[in-house]
Amino acid sequence: MKRPLLLSLFILTAFVTSCKNEKPREKHYGLIADKGMVVSAREEASRIGVEIMKKGGNAFDALIATDMALNVTYPFAGSIGGGGFMVYRKADGEIGALDYREKAPLAASRDMYLDENGAPIDSLSRQGGLAVGVPGSIAGMYAIHDKLGSLPMEEILQPVIELAQKGFVITDNQLGRFQRLAETFEKVNGKRILFSEGFLKNDSLTAKKSGDTLKNPKLAETFRRLAANGKAEFYEGETGQKLVAFMQSKGGILTLEDLKAYEAVWRKPIVSNYKGLKVIGMPPPSSGGVCLAQILKMIEPYDLAAYGHNTEKSIQVITEAERRAYADRSFYLGDPDFNDIPIDKLTSASYASERMENFSFEHATPSVEIEHGAIPGYESMETTHYSIIDQYGNAIAVTTTLNGAYGSKLYADELGFFLNNEMDDFSVKPGSPNMFGLIGAEANAVEPGKRMLSSMTPTIVEKDGKLWMSVGTPGGSTIITSVLQTLLNVSAYDMTMQEAVDAPRFHHQWLPDNVIFEPQSFDAKLLESLTAKGYSTVQEKSVILGKVDGILVMPSGKLEGGADHRGDDTAVGF
Ligand code: DON
After folding, report:
1. What's the pLDDT tens digit per position in 344-361?
2. Structurally, how many domains does the chain consist of?
3. Which of 173, 290, 335, 403 to mutate to test the pocket of ligand 1 (most atoms within 8 A of CB)?
Protein backbone atom coordinates (compact mmCIF):
# COMPACT_ATOMS: atom_id res chain seq x y z
CA MET A 1 0.00 0.00 0.00
CA LYS A 2 1.35 3.45 -0.90
CA ARG A 3 2.06 6.01 1.74
CA PRO A 4 0.27 9.32 1.34
CA LEU A 5 2.40 11.79 -0.61
CA LEU A 6 2.42 14.15 2.32
CA LEU A 7 4.30 11.65 4.45
CA SER A 8 6.88 10.98 1.77
CA LEU A 9 7.51 14.72 1.62
CA PHE A 10 8.35 14.90 5.27
CA ILE A 11 12.06 15.62 5.51
CA LEU A 12 13.39 16.17 8.97
CA THR A 13 16.66 17.70 7.77
CA ALA A 14 14.75 20.56 6.23
CA PHE A 15 13.22 21.19 9.62
CA VAL A 16 16.65 21.25 11.32
CA THR A 17 18.15 23.56 8.67
CA SER A 18 15.27 25.98 8.86
CA CYS A 19 15.67 26.10 12.65
CA LYS A 20 19.38 26.94 12.32
CA ASN A 21 18.70 29.78 9.89
CA GLU A 22 15.96 30.94 12.22
CA LYS A 23 13.50 31.31 9.35
CA PRO A 24 9.99 30.19 10.25
CA ARG A 25 10.03 26.56 9.29
CA GLU A 26 7.57 25.03 6.91
CA LYS A 27 5.20 22.76 8.78
CA HIS A 28 4.07 19.42 7.38
CA TYR A 29 0.57 18.36 8.21
CA GLY A 30 -1.11 14.98 8.09
CA LEU A 31 -4.66 14.51 6.79
CA ILE A 32 -6.94 17.38 7.79
CA ALA A 33 -10.71 16.86 8.17
CA ASP A 34 -13.65 19.01 9.21
CA LYS A 35 -15.92 16.65 11.10
CA GLY A 36 -14.60 13.28 12.16
CA MET A 37 -11.56 11.09 11.80
CA VAL A 38 -10.20 7.61 12.49
CA VAL A 39 -6.46 6.89 12.53
CA SER A 40 -5.64 3.19 12.78
CA ALA A 41 -3.15 0.56 11.68
CA ARG A 42 -5.11 -0.21 8.48
CA GLU A 43 -6.84 1.92 5.88
CA GLU A 44 -9.85 -0.45 5.60
CA ALA A 45 -10.44 -0.26 9.36
CA SER A 46 -10.17 3.55 9.43
CA ARG A 47 -12.53 3.75 6.46
CA ILE A 48 -15.15 1.46 8.03
CA GLY A 49 -15.09 3.58 11.21
CA VAL A 50 -15.61 6.76 9.19
CA GLU A 51 -18.49 5.18 7.22
CA ILE A 52 -20.23 4.38 10.51
CA MET A 53 -19.88 8.03 11.59
CA LYS A 54 -21.19 9.24 8.23
CA LYS A 55 -24.31 7.14 8.86
CA GLY A 56 -24.86 9.16 12.03
CA GLY A 57 -23.02 6.81 14.39
CA ASN A 58 -20.84 8.28 17.11
CA ALA A 59 -17.17 7.69 18.01
CA PHE A 60 -18.12 4.67 20.15
CA ASP A 61 -19.97 2.98 17.28
CA ALA A 62 -17.00 3.77 15.04
CA LEU A 63 -14.66 2.32 17.67
CA ILE A 64 -16.46 -1.05 17.59
CA ALA A 65 -16.49 -1.17 13.78
CA THR A 66 -12.82 -0.16 13.55
CA ASP A 67 -11.76 -2.61 16.24
CA MET A 68 -13.61 -5.52 14.67
CA ALA A 69 -12.32 -4.58 11.20
CA LEU A 70 -8.76 -4.69 12.56
CA ASN A 71 -9.43 -8.32 13.48
CA VAL A 72 -9.87 -8.98 9.79
CA THR A 73 -7.13 -6.81 8.34
CA TYR A 74 -4.56 -6.79 11.13
CA PRO A 75 -4.49 -10.25 12.75
CA PHE A 76 -0.97 -9.33 13.99
CA ALA A 77 -2.65 -7.61 16.92
CA GLY A 78 -6.39 -7.51 16.17
CA SER A 79 -8.07 -8.05 19.35
CA ILE A 80 -10.92 -10.59 19.53
CA GLY A 81 -8.61 -13.22 21.06
CA GLY A 82 -7.01 -10.60 23.31
CA GLY A 83 -7.94 -7.50 25.24
CA GLY A 84 -7.40 -3.78 25.56
CA PHE A 85 -8.17 -0.44 27.12
CA MET A 86 -10.28 2.54 26.09
CA VAL A 87 -10.04 6.11 27.35
CA TYR A 88 -12.81 8.48 26.30
CA ARG A 89 -13.88 12.07 26.55
CA LYS A 90 -17.42 12.91 25.57
CA ALA A 91 -18.36 16.15 23.89
CA ASP A 92 -19.80 17.38 27.21
CA GLY A 93 -16.44 16.85 28.95
CA GLU A 94 -17.32 13.58 30.73
CA ILE A 95 -14.30 11.28 30.85
CA GLY A 96 -13.94 7.57 31.54
CA ALA A 97 -11.86 4.45 31.01
CA LEU A 98 -12.78 0.86 30.24
CA ASP A 99 -10.56 -2.09 31.17
CA TYR A 100 -11.12 -5.18 29.06
CA ARG A 101 -7.67 -6.61 29.73
CA GLU A 102 -7.29 -10.40 29.72
CA LYS A 103 -7.26 -12.27 33.04
CA ALA A 104 -5.33 -15.29 34.27
CA PRO A 105 -7.55 -18.40 34.03
CA LEU A 106 -8.89 -19.67 37.36
CA ALA A 107 -6.58 -22.70 37.14
CA ALA A 108 -3.48 -20.48 36.80
CA SER A 109 -0.90 -20.56 39.56
CA ARG A 110 2.03 -18.47 40.61
CA ASP A 111 4.77 -20.91 39.56
CA MET A 112 3.13 -22.32 36.44
CA TYR A 113 5.95 -21.10 34.18
CA LEU A 114 8.87 -22.31 36.35
CA ASP A 115 10.87 -25.52 36.01
CA GLU A 116 11.68 -27.81 38.95
CA ASN A 117 14.64 -25.58 39.86
CA GLY A 118 12.46 -22.50 39.96
CA ALA A 119 13.80 -21.07 36.68
CA PRO A 120 11.35 -19.49 34.18
CA ILE A 121 10.57 -21.51 31.02
CA ASP A 122 9.98 -18.52 28.75
CA SER A 123 8.37 -20.48 25.92
CA LEU A 124 5.45 -21.54 28.16
CA SER A 125 4.22 -18.01 28.81
CA ARG A 126 4.89 -16.92 25.21
CA GLN A 127 3.63 -19.64 22.85
CA GLY A 128 0.87 -22.23 22.86
CA GLY A 129 -2.00 -23.02 25.22
CA LEU A 130 -0.61 -21.96 28.59
CA ALA A 131 0.29 -18.49 27.32
CA VAL A 132 -3.34 -17.53 26.77
CA GLY A 133 -5.24 -15.24 29.14
CA VAL A 134 -9.07 -15.07 29.18
CA PRO A 135 -9.93 -12.77 26.21
CA GLY A 136 -11.67 -9.50 27.12
CA SER A 137 -12.27 -7.69 23.82
CA ILE A 138 -15.80 -8.82 23.09
CA ALA A 139 -16.90 -8.00 26.65
CA GLY A 140 -15.27 -4.59 26.11
CA MET A 141 -17.09 -3.93 22.84
CA TYR A 142 -20.48 -4.81 24.37
CA ALA A 143 -19.81 -2.73 27.51
CA ILE A 144 -18.98 0.25 25.29
CA HIS A 145 -22.03 -0.33 23.14
CA ASP A 146 -24.40 -0.67 26.12
CA LYS A 147 -23.21 2.52 27.80
CA LEU A 148 -22.17 4.80 24.93
CA GLY A 149 -23.16 3.39 21.55
CA SER A 150 -25.98 4.71 19.39
CA LEU A 151 -26.44 2.45 16.34
CA PRO A 152 -27.65 -1.18 16.59
CA MET A 153 -24.80 -3.69 16.90
CA GLU A 154 -25.97 -5.58 13.77
CA GLU A 155 -25.59 -2.40 11.72
CA ILE A 156 -22.10 -1.76 13.13
CA LEU A 157 -20.94 -5.33 12.46
CA GLN A 158 -22.39 -5.62 8.95
CA PRO A 159 -19.47 -3.97 7.07
CA VAL A 160 -17.03 -6.03 9.13
CA ILE A 161 -18.77 -9.28 8.18
CA GLU A 162 -18.58 -8.21 4.53
CA LEU A 163 -14.88 -7.36 4.87
CA ALA A 164 -14.05 -10.76 6.37
CA GLN A 165 -16.03 -12.42 3.61
CA LYS A 166 -14.56 -10.38 0.73
CA GLY A 167 -11.05 -10.29 2.18
CA PHE A 168 -8.33 -7.73 2.75
CA VAL A 169 -5.29 -6.77 0.70
CA ILE A 170 -1.95 -8.13 1.93
CA THR A 171 0.58 -5.28 2.32
CA ASP A 172 4.38 -5.61 1.97
CA ASN A 173 4.75 -5.36 5.73
CA GLN A 174 2.22 -8.12 6.26
CA LEU A 175 3.67 -10.40 3.61
CA GLY A 176 7.08 -10.26 5.30
CA ARG A 177 5.57 -11.04 8.70
CA PHE A 178 3.46 -13.96 7.46
CA GLN A 179 6.48 -15.39 5.62
CA ARG A 180 8.74 -15.07 8.65
CA LEU A 181 6.21 -16.73 10.96
CA ALA A 182 4.55 -19.34 8.72
CA GLU A 183 6.72 -22.18 10.02
CA THR A 184 6.12 -21.19 13.64
CA PHE A 185 2.36 -21.05 13.00
CA GLU A 186 2.44 -24.62 11.68
CA LYS A 187 4.64 -25.84 14.53
CA VAL A 188 2.49 -24.31 17.28
CA ASN A 189 -0.82 -25.32 15.67
CA GLY A 190 0.40 -28.71 14.46
CA LYS A 191 -1.08 -28.05 11.02
CA ARG A 192 -1.51 -25.63 8.13
CA ILE A 193 -3.53 -22.51 8.96
CA LEU A 194 -5.00 -19.69 6.90
CA PHE A 195 -1.94 -17.53 7.59
CA SER A 196 0.69 -20.14 6.71
CA GLU A 197 -0.88 -21.39 3.45
CA GLY A 198 1.02 -19.73 0.62
CA PHE A 199 3.53 -18.07 2.94
CA LEU A 200 5.95 -20.97 3.51
CA LYS A 201 9.17 -21.04 1.47
CA ASN A 202 8.20 -24.25 -0.35
CA ASP A 203 4.62 -23.15 -1.16
CA SER A 204 5.68 -22.04 -4.64
CA LEU A 205 2.44 -23.15 -6.32
CA THR A 206 0.14 -21.35 -3.92
CA ALA A 207 2.58 -18.53 -3.07
CA LYS A 208 0.86 -15.31 -2.01
CA LYS A 209 2.17 -11.87 -2.94
CA SER A 210 1.58 -8.44 -1.55
CA GLY A 211 -1.52 -7.00 -3.20
CA ASP A 212 -3.29 -10.40 -3.07
CA THR A 213 -6.56 -10.66 -1.18
CA LEU A 214 -6.97 -12.87 1.87
CA LYS A 215 -10.47 -13.93 2.91
CA ASN A 216 -11.41 -15.17 6.38
CA PRO A 217 -14.88 -16.80 6.05
CA LYS A 218 -14.63 -18.45 9.48
CA LEU A 219 -14.19 -15.05 11.12
CA ALA A 220 -17.15 -13.76 9.08
CA GLU A 221 -19.23 -16.61 10.58
CA THR A 222 -18.05 -15.75 14.10
CA PHE A 223 -19.11 -12.12 13.57
CA ARG A 224 -22.47 -13.24 12.15
CA ARG A 225 -23.16 -15.31 15.28
CA LEU A 226 -22.05 -12.39 17.49
CA ALA A 227 -24.36 -9.99 15.66
CA ALA A 228 -27.25 -12.44 16.14
CA ASN A 229 -26.61 -13.56 19.73
CA GLY A 230 -24.67 -10.75 21.46
CA LYS A 231 -21.93 -10.97 24.08
CA ALA A 232 -23.10 -14.37 25.41
CA GLU A 233 -22.17 -15.91 22.05
CA PHE A 234 -18.50 -15.42 22.90
CA TYR A 235 -18.61 -16.18 26.63
CA GLU A 236 -20.98 -19.17 26.73
CA GLY A 237 -22.51 -19.81 23.29
CA GLU A 238 -21.23 -21.81 20.34
CA THR A 239 -18.16 -19.59 19.93
CA GLY A 240 -17.22 -19.89 23.61
CA GLN A 241 -17.69 -23.63 23.61
CA LYS A 242 -15.61 -24.07 20.46
CA LEU A 243 -12.94 -21.82 21.93
CA VAL A 244 -12.71 -23.84 25.16
CA ALA A 245 -12.57 -27.15 23.25
CA PHE A 246 -9.81 -25.71 21.05
CA MET A 247 -7.80 -24.42 24.01
CA GLN A 248 -8.05 -27.70 25.85
CA SER A 249 -6.88 -29.60 22.75
CA LYS A 250 -3.79 -27.37 22.77
CA GLY A 251 -2.78 -27.91 26.39
CA GLY A 252 -4.48 -24.73 27.63
CA ILE A 253 -6.30 -24.32 30.96
CA LEU A 254 -9.10 -22.00 29.84
CA THR A 255 -12.57 -23.24 30.83
CA LEU A 256 -16.14 -22.17 30.18
CA GLU A 257 -16.23 -21.03 33.82
CA ASP A 258 -13.40 -18.56 33.01
CA LEU A 259 -15.31 -17.21 30.04
CA LYS A 260 -18.60 -16.90 31.93
CA ALA A 261 -16.88 -15.06 34.79
CA TYR A 262 -15.22 -12.48 32.55
CA GLU A 263 -16.43 -8.87 32.89
CA ALA A 264 -15.01 -5.63 31.51
CA VAL A 265 -14.54 -2.99 34.24
CA TRP A 266 -15.19 0.78 34.09
CA ARG A 267 -12.36 2.56 35.88
CA LYS A 268 -11.50 6.11 36.85
CA PRO A 269 -8.90 7.60 34.47
CA ILE A 270 -5.59 8.96 35.75
CA VAL A 271 -5.77 12.73 35.36
CA SER A 272 -2.64 14.84 35.57
CA ASN A 273 -1.69 18.37 34.69
CA TYR A 274 1.36 19.25 32.67
CA LYS A 275 2.10 22.89 31.84
CA GLY A 276 -1.56 23.74 31.42
CA LEU A 277 -2.54 20.52 29.65
CA LYS A 278 -4.92 18.05 31.28
CA VAL A 279 -3.69 14.55 30.46
CA ILE A 280 -6.29 11.79 30.76
CA GLY A 281 -4.71 8.34 30.93
CA MET A 282 -5.45 4.67 31.52
CA PRO A 283 -5.28 3.56 35.17
CA PRO A 284 -4.00 0.16 36.40
CA PRO A 285 -3.93 -2.62 35.36
CA SER A 286 -2.17 -0.48 32.81
CA SER A 287 0.97 1.22 33.99
CA GLY A 288 0.56 3.69 31.12
CA GLY A 289 -1.43 6.45 32.80
CA VAL A 290 0.50 6.38 36.08
CA CYS A 291 3.96 6.28 34.45
CA LEU A 292 3.08 8.98 31.92
CA ALA A 293 1.76 11.21 34.71
CA GLN A 294 4.89 10.54 36.81
CA ILE A 295 7.29 11.32 33.97
CA LEU A 296 5.41 14.49 33.02
CA LYS A 297 5.52 15.69 36.64
CA MET A 298 9.24 14.95 36.89
CA ILE A 299 10.08 16.87 33.69
CA GLU A 300 7.64 19.75 34.23
CA PRO A 301 10.15 22.07 35.96
CA TYR A 302 12.58 21.85 33.02
CA ASP A 303 12.33 24.08 29.94
CA LEU A 304 12.38 21.46 27.20
CA ALA A 305 11.32 24.00 24.56
CA ALA A 306 14.45 26.02 25.29
CA TYR A 307 16.69 22.93 25.25
CA GLY A 308 15.29 21.89 21.84
CA HIS A 309 13.94 18.64 20.38
CA ASN A 310 16.17 15.58 20.83
CA THR A 311 19.06 17.64 22.17
CA GLU A 312 21.38 16.29 24.84
CA LYS A 313 19.68 18.17 27.66
CA SER A 314 16.17 17.14 26.62
CA ILE A 315 17.24 13.51 26.23
CA GLN A 316 18.89 13.54 29.66
CA VAL A 317 15.91 14.98 31.52
CA ILE A 318 13.43 12.66 29.83
CA THR A 319 15.63 9.57 30.25
CA GLU A 320 16.22 10.22 33.95
CA ALA A 321 12.51 10.73 34.59
CA GLU A 322 11.74 7.52 32.69
CA ARG A 323 14.33 5.63 34.72
CA ARG A 324 12.67 6.62 37.99
CA ALA A 325 9.11 6.01 36.79
CA TYR A 326 9.88 2.55 35.38
CA ALA A 327 11.63 1.58 38.65
CA ASP A 328 8.40 2.47 40.47
CA ARG A 329 6.31 0.66 37.86
CA SER A 330 8.21 -2.51 38.48
CA PHE A 331 7.56 -2.45 42.21
CA TYR A 332 4.19 -0.81 42.81
CA LEU A 333 2.02 -1.58 39.80
CA GLY A 334 -0.24 -4.53 39.10
CA ASP A 335 -3.95 -5.38 38.99
CA PRO A 336 -5.75 -2.84 41.24
CA ASP A 337 -8.29 -5.52 42.18
CA PHE A 338 -5.43 -7.46 43.82
CA ASN A 339 -3.14 -4.64 45.01
CA ASP A 340 -3.42 -1.43 46.91
CA ILE A 341 -1.57 1.01 44.62
CA PRO A 342 -0.49 4.43 45.99
CA ILE A 343 -1.54 6.24 42.80
CA ASP A 344 -2.06 9.70 44.33
CA LYS A 345 1.36 9.69 45.92
CA LEU A 346 3.14 8.29 42.85
CA THR A 347 1.65 10.95 40.58
CA SER A 348 2.05 13.92 42.94
CA ALA A 349 4.34 16.88 42.24
CA SER A 350 6.06 16.55 45.63
CA TYR A 351 6.98 12.91 45.03
CA ALA A 352 8.22 13.80 41.51
CA SER A 353 10.54 16.44 42.84
CA GLU A 354 11.88 14.07 45.54
CA ARG A 355 12.58 11.48 42.85
CA MET A 356 14.53 13.99 40.71
CA GLU A 357 16.57 15.37 43.63
CA ASN A 358 19.67 13.39 42.66
CA PHE A 359 19.43 14.20 38.92
CA SER A 360 22.37 16.06 37.40
CA PHE A 361 23.14 17.20 33.85
CA GLU A 362 26.79 16.23 34.56
CA HIS A 363 26.29 12.46 34.42
CA ALA A 364 23.80 9.61 34.11
CA THR A 365 22.31 8.12 37.27
CA PRO A 366 23.13 4.39 37.00
CA SER A 367 19.97 2.29 37.21
CA VAL A 368 21.57 0.13 39.94
CA GLU A 369 21.48 3.22 42.14
CA ILE A 370 17.77 3.75 41.51
CA GLU A 371 15.25 1.69 43.39
CA HIS A 372 11.55 2.30 43.60
CA GLY A 373 10.83 5.36 45.72
CA ALA A 374 9.89 4.93 49.37
CA ILE A 375 6.22 5.55 50.03
CA PRO A 376 5.44 5.53 53.74
CA GLY A 377 2.48 3.38 54.72
CA TYR A 378 2.60 1.35 51.51
CA GLU A 379 2.47 -2.40 52.18
CA SER A 380 4.12 -4.28 49.42
CA MET A 381 2.94 -7.61 49.36
CA GLU A 382 1.85 -6.83 19.04
CA THR A 383 -0.65 -4.49 19.97
CA THR A 384 -2.37 -1.75 18.02
CA HIS A 385 -3.74 1.69 18.76
CA TYR A 386 -6.43 3.80 17.11
CA SER A 387 -7.80 7.24 17.79
CA ILE A 388 -11.23 8.52 16.79
CA ILE A 389 -12.95 11.89 17.03
CA ASP A 390 -16.51 12.17 15.77
CA GLN A 391 -18.64 14.97 14.31
CA TYR A 392 -20.28 15.49 17.72
CA GLY A 393 -16.99 16.16 19.54
CA ASN A 394 -16.64 12.78 21.30
CA ALA A 395 -13.11 11.38 21.41
CA ILE A 396 -11.70 7.95 22.11
CA ALA A 397 -8.24 6.43 22.39
CA VAL A 398 -8.02 2.63 22.29
CA THR A 399 -5.00 0.36 22.55
CA THR A 400 -5.64 -3.31 22.11
CA THR A 401 -3.35 -6.32 21.98
CA LEU A 402 -2.62 -10.00 21.64
CA ASN A 403 0.76 -9.14 23.28
CA GLY A 404 3.41 -10.62 20.93
CA ALA A 405 2.94 -10.71 17.16
CA TYR A 406 -0.09 -12.98 16.59
CA GLY A 407 -0.08 -13.61 20.37
CA SER A 408 0.50 -17.24 21.33
CA LYS A 409 0.52 -18.08 17.57
CA LEU A 410 -2.44 -20.38 18.30
CA TYR A 411 -5.07 -19.86 15.63
CA ALA A 412 -8.59 -21.11 16.37
CA ASP A 413 -9.29 -22.11 12.77
CA GLU A 414 -12.97 -22.89 13.38
CA LEU A 415 -13.43 -19.35 14.67
CA GLY A 416 -10.99 -17.40 12.51
CA PHE A 417 -8.78 -15.63 15.07
CA PHE A 418 -5.46 -15.85 16.95
CA LEU A 419 -5.28 -16.18 20.75
CA ASN A 420 -3.21 -13.85 22.94
CA ASN A 421 -0.02 -14.66 24.90
CA GLU A 422 -0.80 -12.04 27.51
CA MET A 423 0.23 -14.31 30.41
CA ASP A 424 3.84 -13.24 29.67
CA ASP A 425 2.95 -9.74 30.89
CA PHE A 426 2.83 -11.14 34.41
CA SER A 427 6.12 -11.38 36.28
CA VAL A 428 6.37 -15.11 35.72
CA LYS A 429 8.98 -15.03 38.46
CA PRO A 430 9.23 -11.78 40.37
CA GLY A 431 12.56 -10.18 39.41
CA SER A 432 12.93 -12.03 36.05
CA PRO A 433 12.45 -10.00 32.86
CA ASN A 434 9.52 -10.66 30.51
CA MET A 435 9.74 -10.49 26.69
CA PHE A 436 10.05 -6.71 26.85
CA GLY A 437 12.85 -6.92 29.44
CA LEU A 438 10.45 -5.55 32.07
CA ILE A 439 11.01 -6.68 35.62
CA GLY A 440 8.05 -7.02 37.96
CA ALA A 441 7.52 -7.83 41.60
CA GLU A 442 4.86 -9.34 43.86
CA ALA A 443 2.24 -6.85 42.70
CA ASN A 444 2.33 -8.47 39.25
CA ALA A 445 2.83 -12.14 40.18
CA VAL A 446 0.46 -14.69 38.55
CA GLU A 447 -2.76 -15.32 40.50
CA PRO A 448 -6.02 -16.93 39.36
CA GLY A 449 -8.46 -14.37 37.93
CA LYS A 450 -5.91 -11.54 38.07
CA ARG A 451 -5.16 -9.08 35.26
CA MET A 452 -1.55 -8.81 34.11
CA LEU A 453 0.14 -5.41 34.21
CA SER A 454 0.23 -3.55 30.90
CA SER A 455 2.13 -0.63 29.40
CA MET A 456 -0.65 0.37 27.03
CA THR A 457 -1.20 4.12 27.17
CA PRO A 458 -4.30 5.29 25.30
CA THR A 459 -4.37 8.99 26.16
CA ILE A 460 -6.62 11.99 25.64
CA VAL A 461 -5.41 15.52 26.31
CA GLU A 462 -7.35 18.70 26.97
CA LYS A 463 -6.02 22.22 26.49
CA ASP A 464 -7.83 25.19 28.00
CA GLY A 465 -10.70 22.91 28.98
CA LYS A 466 -11.24 21.71 25.41
CA LEU A 467 -10.44 18.50 23.60
CA TRP A 468 -6.93 18.76 22.13
CA MET A 469 -5.45 15.36 21.32
CA SER A 470 -6.12 11.63 21.25
CA VAL A 471 -2.98 9.51 21.02
CA GLY A 472 -1.44 6.07 21.64
CA THR A 473 0.75 3.35 20.19
CA PRO A 474 1.78 -0.32 20.34
CA GLY A 475 5.36 -1.25 21.33
CA GLY A 476 5.34 -3.10 24.66
CA SER A 477 7.48 -1.33 27.22
CA THR A 478 8.26 1.46 24.71
CA ILE A 479 4.59 2.52 24.53
CA ILE A 480 4.76 4.95 27.46
CA THR A 481 7.89 6.71 26.24
CA SER A 482 6.60 6.94 22.65
CA VAL A 483 3.32 8.51 23.77
CA LEU A 484 5.26 10.89 26.02
CA GLN A 485 7.55 12.06 23.19
CA THR A 486 4.66 12.53 20.76
CA LEU A 487 2.82 14.68 23.29
CA LEU A 488 5.96 16.73 23.99
CA ASN A 489 6.71 17.09 20.27
CA VAL A 490 3.48 19.01 19.84
CA SER A 491 3.31 20.81 23.17
CA ALA A 492 6.98 21.73 23.77
CA TYR A 493 8.55 21.51 20.33
CA ASP A 494 5.76 23.04 18.23
CA MET A 495 5.31 20.16 15.76
CA THR A 496 2.18 19.26 13.86
CA MET A 497 0.50 15.95 14.73
CA GLN A 498 2.06 14.23 11.72
CA GLU A 499 5.53 15.63 12.44
CA ALA A 500 5.22 14.60 16.09
CA VAL A 501 4.39 11.04 15.09
CA ASP A 502 7.15 10.84 12.48
CA ALA A 503 9.96 12.37 14.55
CA PRO A 504 12.73 9.96 15.65
CA ARG A 505 12.31 8.50 19.13
CA PHE A 506 14.47 7.14 21.95
CA HIS A 507 13.58 4.92 24.90
CA HIS A 508 14.72 4.10 28.43
CA GLN A 509 13.02 1.80 30.96
CA TRP A 510 15.31 1.66 34.05
CA LEU A 511 16.41 -1.93 33.39
CA PRO A 512 18.23 -2.85 31.24
CA ASP A 513 20.27 0.32 31.79
CA ASN A 514 20.36 1.31 28.10
CA VAL A 515 18.98 4.21 26.11
CA ILE A 516 17.74 2.93 22.75
CA PHE A 517 17.72 5.30 19.76
CA GLU A 518 16.00 4.78 16.44
CA PRO A 519 18.61 4.27 13.70
CA GLN A 520 20.01 6.97 11.41
CA SER A 521 18.20 9.73 13.21
CA PHE A 522 20.51 10.85 16.00
CA ASP A 523 23.84 12.56 15.48
CA ALA A 524 26.92 10.42 16.31
CA LYS A 525 28.45 13.31 18.30
CA LEU A 526 25.34 13.58 20.45
CA LEU A 527 25.49 9.87 21.23
CA GLU A 528 29.23 10.10 22.01
CA SER A 529 28.63 12.93 24.40
CA LEU A 530 25.85 11.01 26.18
CA THR A 531 28.11 7.95 26.39
CA ALA A 532 30.82 10.08 27.98
CA LYS A 533 28.30 11.06 30.67
CA GLY A 534 27.63 7.43 31.49
CA TYR A 535 24.60 6.63 29.29
CA SER A 536 24.79 3.28 27.56
CA THR A 537 23.46 4.19 24.11
CA VAL A 538 22.13 1.54 21.75
CA GLN A 539 21.24 1.96 18.11
CA GLU A 540 20.25 -1.06 16.05
CA LYS A 541 19.42 -1.12 12.36
CA SER A 542 15.95 -2.56 12.59
CA VAL A 543 14.66 -0.89 15.75
CA ILE A 544 11.27 0.80 15.53
CA LEU A 545 9.97 2.53 18.64
CA GLY A 546 6.18 2.42 18.54
CA LYS A 547 3.71 3.03 15.74
CA VAL A 548 1.93 6.09 17.07
CA ASP A 549 -1.47 7.16 15.80
CA GLY A 550 -3.09 10.37 16.95
CA ILE A 551 -5.53 13.16 16.16
CA LEU A 552 -5.01 16.80 17.08
CA VAL A 553 -7.76 19.40 17.25
CA MET A 554 -6.23 22.40 15.48
CA PRO A 555 -6.89 26.00 16.62
CA SER A 556 -9.38 26.30 13.71
CA GLY A 557 -11.37 23.34 15.11
CA LYS A 558 -10.34 21.12 12.20
CA LEU A 559 -8.81 17.73 12.94
CA GLU A 560 -5.26 16.77 11.98
CA GLY A 561 -4.38 13.09 11.81
CA GLY A 562 -0.94 11.70 12.57
CA ALA A 563 -0.57 8.19 11.10
CA ASP A 564 2.78 6.52 11.72
CA HIS A 565 4.88 5.87 8.60
CA ARG A 566 6.59 3.07 10.52
CA GLY A 567 3.57 0.86 9.71
CA ASP A 568 0.65 0.81 7.24
CA ASP A 569 -1.24 3.23 9.47
CA THR A 570 -3.73 5.52 7.75
CA ALA A 571 -5.92 8.47 8.69
CA VAL A 572 -9.36 8.72 7.10
CA GLY A 573 -11.62 11.70 7.74
CA PHE A 574 -14.69 13.50 6.51
O1 DON B 1 0.02 -4.77 27.53
C2 DON B 1 1.20 -4.62 27.23
O3 DON B 1 1.90 -3.78 27.73
C4 DON B 1 1.79 -5.49 26.14
N5 DON B 1 1.06 -6.72 26.07
C6 DON B 1 1.78 -4.74 24.85
C7 DON B 1 2.42 -5.52 23.73
C8 DON B 1 2.77 -4.70 22.56
O9 DON B 1 2.63 -3.51 22.54
C10 DON B 1 3.36 -5.44 21.42
N11 DON B 1 3.39 -4.62 20.25
N12 DON B 1 4.28 -4.16 19.69
Report:
1. 999 999 999 999 999 999
2. 1
3. 403
